[in-house]
Amino acid sequence: MWGPSPFYTSGAAAQLSGLAGLVAAAFPDYGPDEIEAKIIAAVDDVYYANPDVEPGELGAGVTNAWKAVTRWGTLSSSDTWAGEIWISGDVIIPEGVTLNIAPGTTVHIAADDVMMSGLDNSRTEIIVDGTLACLGSSAAPISFSVLADTLTDEWGPIRVRGINSNPIVQLEHCDFGSMSSLLVIDGSSQPSTVSITDCSAETWDTGISIKSLLSSHVVSLDGVALESTGNGSTGIDIWPIGTGNPSITIDGNTTVYGYQTGIRVGRGDQTELGDVVIANSTSNGLVLQATDGGPQFTGL
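Above: the chain's sequence. Below: its structure in token form.
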């Protein structure tokens, strides 16, 4: 705190002590050093508004209680989330790190992103270079909900990035709530393995987007329910780039509802459509469109 009395050290000490208690409650496994590090990492820059002040004279910055008691940023090690989890910005799972989300967990997500990063710097994303395992069950599903007082109504997507790694995404029995998109596989991603089973999401944009330069991605969608909440262009968009030809299986009564186009396949000799329902498409139900005059969808 910096300002007129009583906001000198007496006021600052009381507020900082209270914040330390909130951080300890939010992260019960943290010790004193970890609580201090979390508070310092979450501060807002104070020096941009005081360019004539030497670095360090105003401390680390202005405390930000919201960032201090929530999760955001790059995971430093593998972790398991359980119970009630609060996210305020992009969560990045680096290579070699696994994030497990336990059955029955509720993840509360601020749609706006305190980090202002990712594909959409106005929305909170989960970015996967390592492994994401959200393994709920029919008796204890995992649910994601957007905080009502944030600037937008959607979060996401889950972004499979895999810059120098082979990311793995396993999603089972999850209700992802309202999202921009459920899943995006970057065109530059290294080979990934994605499995989505008995999960649902409402999206205002494309439900699932697979744009790959490589043929060694393996994606399985089984019992996935996607519904457009706005003017979503495509429910499931399989649009390989260059010579990419990923292996895609869609089955298990997967439902795609209310998009302009239900499913679009740009190269399909490794795409298998089984038990799939496409409903209320405003333009096309299923589009098969060879991107380079290549394979003629013999695998469909």
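Residues 78 and 97 are 5 Å apart (CA to CA).
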